[in-house]
Specification:
mainly alpha; ABC transporter involved in vitamin B12 uptake, BtuC; two-stranded antiparallel sheet; 14 helices; about 75% helix; globular
Length: about 350
């Protein structure tokens, strides 16, 4: 039933102690290669585009434009920790941002209550996904593709293929439009979520148990970890974050339409997959996911300013994903061969 294996291959202190300095540096390249590449891209684009790239306006634009993708990547990361995939992060945001506006426009519900309803719907959707995957034993890819497609169909039915346009209250618009110290509030959402998730996944027994499920579900169950509850829980949390991203998107766009949202699916998944190739290569992790989203944002922004065509963004997303996953797999195979008696990685 596992779609993704979660096996960290970051070097241990004992392993590094037995290597020369050159060997130690090469061994750590898979860990810090992506952050280093991100810095090199920033420096390169700043030199090539000194008037537009290294500016506050561009910095603010990147933060504001990619914040929703970052939230969705963090949402995607949670099921991946247990070896599952949640495709509703991309499909769900379509209905969530439409619902956030539609409840106010057509039913006159105050915006705080409308947001609460959307979040509750997200929780319920996550519960359905978790039950389908863990109780009904449907592969997570198939289950979430099915529920996601249903959510998208509901969005089309609700809007009738038309835009929802309304005069939204200032409080609702402030969800995305406010800034503090010159930084968009959406960036603070990402930072807060990343910190909370990092503490949970890296510093609590809950996080270790979830990683254990992703590494070896049967062994985790034999050690007394409630696998079913945890798997359902990560789907609920993932869908909750997706519904929150939908609220932020509605506040940003100020209109609701079913044609908006699906373009976030691939970048969100790419960001999470890239997160499994750095910091803790071999398993998804919070800091790696943030780095993954950052390199996508920097690379796409720089290429577009250099005159890249409209297809540059999906091309860059796909190429970066393939190269990074390939390098991570190569590093894992080399490590397996280097250890006596180790089985070669696939």
């Amino acid at each position: 039933m596992q779609t993704i294996r979660s096996n960290a291959i970051e070097p241990t202190r004992a392993e590094l102690a037995g290597l020369t300095r050159r060997e130690a540096i090469l061994r750590q390249l898979p860990v810090y290669g992506l952050p280093i590449l991100t810095v090199l891209l920033i420096v390169g684009f700043s030199i090539a585009l000194p008037d537009t790239f290294p500016t506050y306006l561009n910095f603010r634009s990147i933060l504001n434009d990619k914040a929703i993708i970052a939230i969705l990547s963090l949402a995607s990361m949670l099921p991946m920790m247990t070896g599952r995939v949640d495709l509703t992060v991309g499909y769900g945001i379509v209905i969530w941002h439409i619902l956030a506006i539609g409840l106010q426009l057509q039913f006159g519900i105050p915006w705080p209550l409308a947001c609460l309803v959307v979040l509750c719907c997200g929780l319920f959707c996550g519960l359905i996904n978790g039950v389908l995957v863990e109780v009904a034993q449907i592969d997570s890819f198939i289950a979430t593709l099915g529920t996601g497609t249903i959510l998208y169909a509901l969005a089309l039915w609700y809007t009738g293929g038309r835009q929802l346009i309304a005069k939204l209250p200032t409080g609702f618009l402030d969800i995305n439009s406010l800034s503090f110290a010159g930084v968009p509030i959406a960036a603070y959402y990402v930072a807060a979520l990343a910190i909370v998730l990092w503490v949970i996944t890296e510093r609590t027994p809950l996080g270790r148990h979830i990683y254990a499920i992703g590494a070896n579900e049967k062994a985790a169950a034999l050690n007394g970890i409630p696998v079913r509850s945890y798997v359902i829980g990560v789907f609920v949390a993932s869908s909750f974050l997706s519904s929150f991203a939908g609220i932020v998107l509605a506040s940003k766009l100020r209109i609701g339409q079913a044609s908006v949202g699906l373009e976030y699916l691939l970048p969100a998944l790419v960001g999470a997959f890239l997160g499994s190739t750095t910091i803790k290569p071999g398993r998804v992790n919070v800091l790696g996911t943030i780095v993954g989203v950052t390199i996508l944002a920097v690379g796409i922004s720089g290429l577009q300013q250099l005159g890249g065509a409209f297809f540059v963004e999906p091309l860059f997303n796909g190429a970066t994903l393939i190269v990074s996953i390939g390098l991570a797999g190569f590093a894992q195979r080399r490590r397996s061969v280097a250890r006596p008696g180790a089985a070669p990685g696939r």
